[in-house]
Amino acid sequence: MNDLLERPTPSDEPETDRVRRFDRASRSRIATLARHEYRAAVRSRVLLALIAILGLATVASVYIASVDYASQLADYNAYKDAAIAGGVQQVAPSPLALLALLRGAMEYLEIIGAVIAITLGYLSITRERGNRTLPLIRSRPVTAGELATGNALGAVGLIATLVTITAAVAVLCLGFIGHDWPNGTQILKLLLAYGAAVVYMTVFYFLGAVATARAKTPANGLMIALGVWLIVVLVLPQIGDTLDADNQVPGGLFASLGLVRADETTILAHFAGYETARTAIEAASFSKHFERFAFAMTDVKAKYVDFSLSQLLDVKRIELEWLAFYAVALTEGFRRAIRRQPTIPQETTS
Amino acid sequence: MIATVARQQLVSLRRQRIFVALVGILLFMTAMAGVIGWMSRETIVRVYDEAVRLLASNGQAAPPNPFELKPTLSMLSNMSIYIPLIGALLAIVLGHLSLADDESTGIGRMIFSRQIARTSYVAGKILSSAIVLALAMAASMAVSLVALLLVNRGLPTGGEFVQLGGFYALSWLYLMLFALIGMAAVLVTRRRSLALLAAMGFWLILTFAVPQFTSGLRPTTSLNPITDPVSTSQPFFTATAKARPFSISEQYKEASGAILGTAPSESGTETTKRVLPLAVSVAGMAAATTALVKRHDYSKGTSDE
């Protein structure tokens, strides 16, 4: 924290040099604050417990999917060998989608990852309040903007570490249990999906921090953030899913009526208004945008399997735009919340 | 004394804006469950009519309307999802507030400076939670009845009324478990936030992780009242499926389906077997909470954070 103790001293140096030196000092202070945030966060036992739940759930979900995949892959390879031995020139490619095995892992990031991020945001604010370090930090030449940026970068670093570990565990499960390793394009798609996960969780980090910073009693702020999480992550997508006509009957309504995809499209054309309203409910959920992007990148949706990466990015650009919109809005909210934090110790009330 | 503690707690909860807001959200979602049920039913009927026309134009015979076999109460099937989501969060907050306020404000320390048995204190707290949840479930049932009345243009039959009552009684029992988890978490942690997050962690495990282990249900699959059967023939499940009767959220969903008639019918004994682990868990958590209150050091208090 020594960087925070260095006060800039007036000098006769030229204006441009002074600005450059100030920028360098500012970056140094931000880096120090980010490191402080990162280190302090990993000391929380609750956070570690939540991360353990996420890790365990991820391993279980990928393990279950991979075991099933390995047997299907073995069947396909046996068929392929027999066909080649029988003189068949062209064998149909495997219909199995390796990355789709990560669906459960992505869903856990969507649900538990968001709770972890809210917890991080909450802890970030309460730590400074509880330890009364905020007045000390703000008594030094640290601006509210630098503090907000430092905290945010520390949190992003921690979230990125967490997501990287989750991704590594998932890929290792695919390779060792599923007996299939992702190729270059698949790795790139995974990077994009997990990159979106970092942005997604960062938005929830800001939500937790803003709700806590604005609440008189921090625990109430946490409750509000968790209430928002419940509606955004679980309730809105659930409503959208339930209103989907095809989800009303086990196995799918259209399949039970003996209709193919083209018939389904023809019939749904008569329900354009209903479908628009249903899609709007889903689109109101921030998590649904992450889910749509991540599922497209991990081949969960069969209709995207044959798309090239550039086609996928083109089709899913809207989801990225929504993610960026929420990220920018919540970043601004976080910056304002930090700026409004009282620099004089306050007594909290219930 | 039990009644006094319970009464004081009820007054205190009425003043908590967050708690009142959560009850409001639960009631709103109950009404929404009716609206969603009605909308999806109307749409399916129209989709079916369109499908019949399309199949007839292709010279094909239409299969029977899959919705005609559905019971009247299936309109409320979303409630078996909202109770474990919104209701459980409400119950955790209820249990949390019941004990955390006494801890952080020092009221607990003051109360036990008097000659009050700790068993009476904790019984009063549990009683207040039971009353609040019973009232919330009664209000939710009233909203459901209004929804059924509006959609069906007639009162539910006596049998349907009993089914609905049975479903909300089961939901009350389910929520009591989470209220007790919320209370116990306050007693084993030193900060309010830790207590809330620990209880949330338990909820995440019971609602999302355990069904994946025992039945291969992905997290988002648990959010839909209608789920496609999942293959559990892998050796992994031969071991974990033994724990399925103890997967509380799964058993609650199955029992709800059986009571409301939205799942394949099963005998009363089967449904009772599903409810039994839940009842035992509630009794166990109540005993654990009582034991924790008895040995809790109220002189230390809990941090407000």
Structural features, described:
The complex is a heterodimer of chains A (350) and B (305). Chain A has 350 residues and is mainly alpha-helical. Chain A has one domain (20-88, 95-339). Chain A contains 13 helices and no strands. The model of chain A has no long low-confidence stretch (mean pLDDT 82). Chain B has 305 residues and is an all-alpha fold. Chain B has one domain. In chain B, 73% of the residues lie in helices and 0% in strands. Chain B has helices at 2-14, 17-57, 79-105, 107-111, 118-152, 158-188, 192-215, 235-240, 248-260, 268-295. Chains A and B meet through α2, α3, α7, α8 and α9 of A and α2, α3 and α7 of B.
Features of this protein?
heterodimer; A: mainly alpha; 13 helices; B: 305 residues
Order of helices and strands of chain A: HHHHHHHHHHHHH
Major sheet of chain B: none
Query: What general form of chain B does the structure show?
Result: elongated
Helix and strand composition category of chain B: mainly alpha
Average pLDDT of chain A, to the nearest integer?
A: 82
> What gap, in angstroms, lies between the N and C termini of chain B?
30 Å
Helix content of chain B: over 70%
User: How large, in whole angstroms, is the Cα Rg of chain B?
Assistant: 22 Å
**Portion of residues within helices of chain A:** over 70%
Q: Please state the average pLDDT score of chain B.
A: 85
Terminal CA distance of chain A reads 33 Å
Share of residues in strands of chain A = under 5%
